[in-house]
Design a protein that fits this description.
The complex is a heterotrimer. Chain A is mainly alpha-helical. Chain A has three helices and no strands. Chain A has one domain (2-86). Chain A has helices spanning 2-21, 25-45, 49-86. The longest helix of chain A is centred in the last third of the chain and has 38 residues, at 49-86. Chain B is mostly helical. Helix content of chain B is 66%, strand content 2%. Chain B contains nine helices and two strands. A two-stranded antiparallel ribbon of chain B has the order 1-2. Chain C has helices spanning 4-21, 26-47, 70-101, 106-113. The chains are: A mainly alpha, B mainly alpha, C mainly alpha. Chains in contact: A-B, A-C, B-C. Chains B and C meet through α1, α2, α3, α4 and α6 of B and α1 and α3 of C.
Chain lengths: 87, 254, 114
């Protein structure tokens, strides 16, 4: 049990560092989804199933989705600016 | 201030802050040893007092109900802010969604995604409703169930188009669902005032622990919060999608 | 092992702040903010954990079995959902900022003011 807890803590710390060190926002959204899943597993080991449910639905699905939608809008606007500059 | 200088200054400050944090955190009780009385007392009396077997749910919606009302209104205000920020501005037009435009360089949705998404919509809605309604018995509640219900709307968008999503959850229905959910929380709280005791007091019949209709006001509050969170997240999703697919500046392409 | 989760929480908070301070893209900074927020969840749940305790759900175990603290679970579960919604608000702000300034780089905003 102790080994399991220590492993999960180390995984959480390294996944969080990986999220910060990924500079491109598009890749970071995927790493953030993975980080949300690892956090959900950690909350499950903490005997808090309600919090694990919340974290998995929100942190692994809803948050990366909104990041991707914001990036899609920015990319569309970038395309229009390039068109304006070319004209 | 150049970025390199900022990075060095931050590292120095973070080292000092980290040392202070660690010095403070070692003053906490050891990890794994819990000797505070509040949690133990709640675990012993909550089931007998409120007839709710999910003590976390009883704490969130009954013992600390005003806290949760505040959190719900943070959510409402944030969704309101997104709706205001992402409205169509003066120099933008609202065109029909151009998902099938010839110059759009996005891959077609594969048939596997469409079929599986369509097949999963029903079970996901059922699971979301189960989570919302059984919040006082098993892990779950309004917040988790509401997000799962919003995921069902996302599956509808993935296996169809933006027009399908709009038809399944038109803007008026989503706005109404969110507002009715937020207002019902206060309405249930006012039941306590109408009965002569405090705001958000548990005045409905308590029933037996383990039954679906038990724990007084907790199931109605769960339903209100589930409605509000589901409406809020679907509104967020549609606002962002509308920005990307519908609202156009002159000359914008996707 | 006595203080290990607290060290992990402090590390995550500092790493998240490092990401925000040295970020060159607003969307990257918003994701680092959510990492810093998650460190508080870890701290809260570590304080309430009791080794050998079960989840505080008494549907199929009798009342009186050792269980972890329910109060910190209640605080954290609303926090997770609301934190994601506030991140959505920040992302909408970033999109509008890009519309008006043409860049997601924080350095660009600073120079724009001078």
């Amino acid at each position: 049990m102790i080994v399991l807890e220590v492993t999960v803590f180390l995984l959480v710390a390294s996944a969080g560092t990986a999220v910060v060190l990924t500079r491109d926002p598009l890749n970071q959204a995927i790493v953030a989804s993975f980080y949300g899943l690892i956090l959900g597993i950690m909350f499950f080991i903490y005997q808090a199933p309600d919090v694990a449910l919340s974290q998995i639905t929100v942190g692994a699905v809803a948050l990366p989705l909104m990041i991707l939608l914001a990036l899609a809008k920015v990319r569309a606007l970038a395309g229009s600016r390039r068109q304006d500059n070319d004209r | 201030m150049t970025p390199a200088l900022r990075r060095r200054m931050f590292l120095v400050a973070a080292a000092v802050a980290g040392l202070l944090l660690l010095w403070g955190l070692t003053g906490l009780p050891d990890y794994g040893v819990y000797n505070g009385p509040y949690g133990d007392v709640l675990n012993e009396v909550a089931v007998a007092e409120r007839k709710a077997t999910n003590v976390v749910g009883a704490v969130t919606f009954d013992y600390r109900g005003v806290d949760t009302m505040g959190e719900e209104y943070i959510l409402f205000a944030a969704v309101l802010g997104v709706a205001i920020l992402l409205r169509a501005q003066r120099d933008e037009t609202e065109n029909p969604p151009d998902e099938d435009a010839a110059d759009r360089n996005a891959p077609q949705t594969s048939n596997a995604v469409r079929v599986i998404g369509l097949a999963l919509v029903g079970p996901v809605v059922l699971f979301g409703l189960y989570l919302v309604l059984h919040g006082h018995l098993t892990p779950g509640g309004g917040f988790q169930g509401g997000v799962v219900l919003a995921t069902a709307a996302l599956l509808v968008y993935l296996s169809g188009e933006y027009v399908t999503l709009r038809r399944v959850s038109p803007e008026l229905v989503t706005d109404l669902a969110e507002s009715v959910g937020a207002a019902s929380y206060v309405a249930v709280g006012l039941l306590g005032v109408a009965a002569g005791t405090a705001f958000l007091d548990n005045v409905l019949p308590l029933g037996q622990p383990g039954e679906l209709l038990s724990a007084g006001i907790i199931p109605p509050i769960n339903a209100a919060i589930g409605l509000e969170v589901a409406g809020g997240f679907v509104l967020l999703l549609s606002e962002f999608l509308e920005q990307t697919l519908v609202i156009r500046r002159p000359g914008e392409v996707t | 092992m006595r203080f290990f989760p607290y060290i992990v929480a402090a590390w995550l908070m500092l790493v998240g702040l490092y990401g925000i301070a040295t970020s060159r893209n607003l969307v990257h900074a918003i994701t680092c903010l959510s990492v810093a927020q998650s460190s508080t969840y870890i701290l809260l749940l570590s304080v309430g954990f009791e080794r050998g305790g079960t989840a505080p759900i008494f549907l199929d175990v009798p009342v009186g079995t050792k269980a972890v603290d329910p109060v910190v679970g209640a605080l954290t579960l609303t926090d997770v959902v609301v934190g994601a919604t506030v991140s959505a608000l920040l992302l909408a702000l970033a999109v509008q900022a890009y519309k008006h300034h043409g860049s997601l780089d924080p350095e660009h905003f600073r120079r724009h003011q001078d």
